[in-house]
Amino acid sequence: MSVATKFKCLRCGHEFDGHYDPKAPLVEWTCPLPECKSNSIRPMKEKKRE
């Protein structure tokens, strides 16, 4: 089951929304910005609320 997740490009810092299923086989993401197209994309961890 995939969940809506925020992703961040480690090269340019661009953040974008996508769907991520941690139990599915690994999918290679690319940055959606035409000037970047890096594949160094990571799902962002949710910030803990106090």
Provide the fold topology:
Elements lengths: L2 E7 L5 E6 L20 E3 L7
Antiparallel strand pairs: 1-2, 1-3
Quick synopsis:
This protein is 0% helix and 32% strand. With 50 residues, it is an all-beta fold. It has a single domain, classed as Rubrerythrin, domain 2 (Single Sheet), CATH 2.20.28.
Describe the strand arrangement of the main beta sheet, using strand numbers.
2-1-3
User: How does the major sheet shape up?
Assistant: 3 strands, antiparallel
Helical residues, percent: under 10%
Span of the ends, CA to CA = 28 Å
Total strand count, please? 3
What CATH calls the topology is Rubrerythrin, domain 2
The number of domains is 1
Molecular shape: globular
Q: What report would you give on this structure?
A:
The protein is mainly β. It has one domain (3-44): Rubrerythrin, domain 2 (Single Sheet). It has strands at residues 3-9, 15-20, 41-43. The mean pLDDT is 87.
Kindly list the characteristics that best describe this protein.
mainly beta; Rubrerythrin, domain 2
